[in-house]
């Protein structure tokens, strides 16, 4: 711990009490932030702040995504492809195409492999 504190000692660029790595005071660091900033300073790394001492202004590209991405299974992707193909080639409704696509994929999946070749 003493070696970590030594790595966090104020430098010429950092005023007394300021961390040489992040924009926070060293006395505001928790043990994890102490280790993180010490390793960052020792390795001369350039990485974002991991302190819990307070939020810092983040650049636009560092902000978390707010758009929700829904998971679509491979099975659902297959059904959608078959449904869209049926919709293009037949005059069936969306509901009928969906039901037929599910039935066709079930038939294909249940067919023994030697018959599918």
Automatic annotation (TrEMBL):
Check the record and name the Pfam families matching this protein. DUF6307
Query: Where does the source fall among the domains of life?
Result: Bacteria
Q: Name the chain's protein.
A: RGCVC family protein
Species source reads: Amycolatopsis halotolerans
